[in-house]
Amino acid sequence: MPDADTALQPEPVAPVAERRPTVRTHHGDTFTDDYEWLRDGEDPAVVAHLEAETAWAEARTAHLAPLRERLFAEIKERTLETDLSVPVRQGGYWYYSRTVEGEQYAIHARVPAQAGDRTPPRVEPGEVPAGEQVLLDENAEARGHDFFALGGSDVSADGSRLLYQVDTQGDERYTLRLRDLTTGQELPDVVEDTAPGAAFTPDGAYVFYLTVDEAWRPDKVWRHRVGTPVSDDVVVFHEPDERFWVGVGVTRSERFVVIEAAAKLTSEVRLVDVADPEAEPRVVWARREGVEYTVEHAVLPGGAGVDGAGSGGAGADAPRDVLLVLHNDGAVNFELVVTPVPGGRDGAGDGAGAPLDPAAAVVVLPHDPAVRLDAVEAFASHVVLGYRREALTRVGVVDVAALARAAGGGAGRLPVRELELDEPLFTVGLGASPEWDQPSVRVVTESFVTPPGVHDLDLATGELTLLKRQPVLGGYDPERYVQLREWATAEDGTRVPISLVWRRDAVTLDGAGTRAEPAPLLLYGYGSYEISMDPWFSVPRLSLLDRGVVFAVAHVRGGGELGRRWYDDGKMAAKPHTFGDFVAVGRHLVDAGWTTPERMVAEGGSAGGLLVGAVVNLAPDLFAGVHAAVPFVDPLTSMLDPTLPLTVTEWEEWGDPLHDPEIYAVMKGYAPYENVPDDAAHYPRVLATTSFHDTRVLFVEPAKWVARLRAAGAPVLLRIEMAAGHGGVSGRYARWEQVAWENAWLLDVLGLAEG
């Protein structure tokens, strides 16, 4: 029996937000917003309401506590808690990170490398490498803080200095610090409120870093001379256009500091020669509206090359500095060109400070409507390409001698040696490969059923050597699981890819491969920013698969799976295609016998939260539940207010409803918050999860959405983390607890809470 104190406690009730109407009118349309007052996070009434929401969510899911504990234990039991990453060679050291059982965060360290040694040292799990020097222990840095995130780090080329950025709030404002690695002492150079991304010049004498404006937009690149007061730091570049974000880094060749200003549709790159770090940045191509490009420095062997990129008096056989430019000017899926270095050494380039002429570049890999070129990485002897074809990522290698011939007008298409993988679905990409002159590069692979593997790819032979596969404890066998690709047909006839994965013995198929009976299914989607949901392995997902849940990904328009046109056909005025595609995928899965509406849950986060929020209004009877994580569910309110963080930069993704009545009408038609009906009692169970300090999707969006859903009678819960950011809580155990909570809710909706 409950004790007397417990018996006297009142039963929790669902929070009901007070209606405080505010009215807005745009383009002749008037909307009454009852819950905009929830935006003020400093109002005690708002904080009290948010805390009441989480308390209600905890009360309504209290019966799931044993399941949450089991799910957490399963994640823990499958994870090698004391582990070590594959060391990466840079200069005279092997760098790695390791985790220790019981500790939330990683430890970053290094050991000396032997001259000529290209094979990473092998260390048994649980051992500490001999000669280890700890560079940064995140656990020590996190002590006393409820939240901790490392925003970026860099080591000077001589290995003597470390820079690192930390956020202890979750609001993505990072403190930049420097450490002397020869003494272990912190340097007095401390910069507050930086944006993630900072880099040393190769000699470690200067640091280039970023700061943000009032809208949280990285808008300035600063130069700091190590050992001088931060007050003396110099703004190297300022981007006043609110559509553009800036970034900074150093080329692998250690020849240039690269400053990039990029909006959603336009970019511009500047270079600073590291030989003169205080020089003015030089523009590569002057920005042109709608033209995006990235730049990589390469060195071609002598005897061939781009006109004007020669070595002047050094002779025709001298190596030639060039830039590899990946761009979309007249090439929707991008093409690769070679161009001189602006104002380059040895007389190369324009020599007068003017930007280069894009028309003078030499095309070495022309546009292909079936191949989306994503990245180019230059090394001393080869160039590695990242691209996607047939909705899957690819990696290809090009010899710089062949590149030189193509740049010099050699006949034929540039030969690309593609890495072949033997799974039907996979993700492949370049891993950490910081050195310019290395015979092999790191490649990382994974799939829905194969844990991530780190490989060395021999650049000369193409041989792929597995260095480590992420261990999954408890007897995990990938052969017990199946992954495949299916296609749904959208209302306009567009074929939409679907990825599925399930446990072989948990889903019954007949001899023809047809589902003998429907299965519980989780349908995940995103569909924005040209971000692709490529196959990824998940330890927590195994707990769902082993209970008979099928996991499916709807690769809807707005993502990048099928190239730039796939993205363009799911943004701005075409955004409704994203939601229609997801509904079409859900209906296909029902019609094909994979599941039923009573056994299907939809899930998405951030822009994916907008997706599932819009879909629950469009097709509330298609799902048993919807999980919207840090969801962008009040997009019209946000996009109408240019004073809010990130709004202006987002207009090229969603459109500008403030000035464009057509976009206003489109957004008004799909915005989840504004389209909640007066009676939503027939809606599926809805779970919204968010973070108080999220600066990308403010907590007010799900708070308002949940308030309106509850007022309309929908069965809805809101769980808010008060010490977290857009990515949720920090620390691996805290993350496991969070995902266990969410997956317990999911299994309960699917009727599997006892499994």
CATH superfamily of the largest domain: Alpha/Beta hydrolase fold, catalytic domain
CATH topology of the largest domain: Rossmann fold
In CATH, the architecture of the largest domain is: 3-Layer(aba) Sandwich
Oligomer: single chain
Question: What is the CATH first-level class name of the largest domain?
Answer: Alpha Beta
Task: State the domain count.
Answer: 4
The count of helical stretches stands at 14
Strand content: 25-35%
Average pLDDT level: 91
Strand order of the largest sheet: 31-32-34-33-35-36-37-38
Instruction: List how many beta strands DSSP finds.
Output: 38
Calculate the terminal CA-CA distance, rounded to whole Å: 28 Å
Shape: globular
Major sheet characteristics? 8 strands, mixed
Unreliable spans: 308-314, 345-351
Helix content: 10-25%
Structural class estimated from helices and strands: alpha+beta
**Rg, Cα atoms, Å:** 27 Å
Care to describe what's here?
This protein is an alpha+beta fold and 755 residues long. The protein folds into four domains: 54-77 and 475-749, Rossmann fold; 85-144, no CATH class; 150-283, Prolyl oligopeptidase, N-terminal domain (Methylamine Dehydrogenase, Chain H); 296-436, no CATH class. Helix content is 19%, strand content 32%. It has 14 helices and 38 strands. The strands form eight sheets. Strands 31-32-34-33-35-36-37-38 form an eight-stranded mixed sheet, with helices on both faces. Strands 8-9-10-11-12-13-14 form a seven-stranded antiparallel sheet, with no helix packed on it. Strands 3, 4, 5, 6 and 7 form a five-stranded antiparallel sheet that branches. Strand 16 (256-262) and strand 17 (267-273) form a beta hairpin. It is globular, with a radius of gyration of 27 Å. 46% of the residues are buried. Residues 308-314 and 345-351 have low confidence and may be disordered.
